[in-house]
Amino acid sequence: MSFTGFTQHDFDTFAIEGLDGRMAAIRERIQPKFKALGDVLATELSVQSGTEMFLHIAKHLRRKINPPVDTWMAICPNKRGYKQVPHFQVGLFDDRVFIWLALIYELPNKGNIATTYMNNLKQIQAEIPTDFLLSFDHMKKDTIPVSQLDTTGWNEALIRFRDVKKAELLIGRNLRFDDPVLTNPAELEQLIEQTFEKLIPLYKLAVDTPSL
Fold first, then answer.
1. What is the pLDDT of residues 122-138, one digit of tens each?
2. DSSP output for the chain
3. What is the pTM of this model?
4. Which of 22, 108, 127, 200 has the greatest number of CB atoms lying within 10 Å of its CB?
């Protein structure tokens, strides 16, 4: 199938009670769209990054009782998994689409990456648009606008990412459920590609950081 954008029907998935019912709706409504969109984005990111990229669609296999409050796809150079490497995410909560460069807590090298980012903070501040957002937990909706972060704020955010074991760092955009771009697949795909293009320099800083 070709990508058709996201509609209220997709967001309504997260109002379905129970793990089995919600997961069935995620598989039926959202995951085919992730596959169609993700294949295109993986090809584009392979070009932008200079490395072959692979699509992963969250399966939520660890959930046994509580249904997921969000769902996502991830794109990274590791064919086997994405959680332990810097990766790109597109996903849905019940009220938004999120578009992230994601450095999550399973990343074994996150302390070194935080230091790399602090050492290159001027470049990061110059590269990241002021309408982008930061998040410290991919399972929560809380965000901080980049426009509110001065150099001290960036350093505090990166120190938190470095020193707090469960802290994550996600950088990108959120789009409200009623944003008209979501129902225009070509425009949405272009916006996501433009977002990732802005994030590629940070991605490269992360993947080029030496391991412990």
1. 999 999 999 999 999 88
2. -------HHHHGGGGS-SHHHHHHHIIIIIHHHHHHHHHHHHHHHHHHHSS--EEEE---TT-SSSPPS-EEEEEES-SS-STTS-EEEEEE-SSEEEEEEEE-TT-TTHHHHHHHHHHTHHHHHHHS-TT-EEES-TTS---EEGGG--HHHHHHHHHHHHHSTT--EEEEEEEETT-GGGG-HHHHHHHHHHHHHHHHHHHHHHHTSPP-
3. 0.95
4. 22
In a domain, 35, yes or no: yes
| Cα 112 from Cα 62, distance rounded (Å) | 29
What's the domain count of the chain?
1
What CATH number is associated with residue 156? 3.30.930.20
Q: Is the residue at 195 inside a domain?
A: yes
* Interacting residues of 147 by C-beta distance below 8 A, sequence separation 6+: 130, 131
pLDDT band per the 50, 70, 90 thresholds, residue 65: confident
Q: What is the dihedral of CA 94, 95, 99, 100, to 10 degrees?
A: -70
Quote the CA–CA distance of 179 and 148 in Å, as a whole number: 23
Cβ-contact 85, 78 below 8 angstroms: yes
Residue 3 belongs to some domain of the structure: no
Q: Give the model's confidence band at 61: pLDDT under 50 very low, under 70 low, under 90 confident, else very high.
A: confident
pLDDT(154) > 90: yes
The residue segments making up the domain with residue 158 are 8-207
Q: Quick check: is 145 in a domain?
A: yes
